[in-house]
Amino acid sequence: MRNLLVASFLLSSLCLPVAVKASTPADDMTAPTPIRVSTGVTAPVLVSSPVITLPDTITFDLIPQSAQVELSMTIDEKGHPENIKVVKSFNPFVDGRVVDAVSNFHFHPSTIDHKPTAVNMDLTVTVTH
To answer: Exposure winner among 15, 16, 52, 57, fewest CB in 10 A?
Structure first.
């Protein structure tokens, strides 16, 4: 009798989640939408970049050899950078020059299945002298 009581208790707890799952109505709003996975993705490629120049009045002794400015931006479907933001600043003056120069960069745009698409991208620019 004891074994029968324990077995019925265990079986009832196993059937409860099944009953709850079966009684939950599924509609189109809660049904998961399949996501298409593609292997035809390419990253943007830098085609042309102007040289960043600083005025002669700046002494390079104040700029370390490994000065870096980290940027975040979007490369649009035509390969032009937009929404350029400084993520890690080196110096506001140098940052402004770097942002101005990067806004004139040109990329081959990123593609998905051979169709150009906009992508977000991070870029680290190293200032050397």
So the answer is: 57
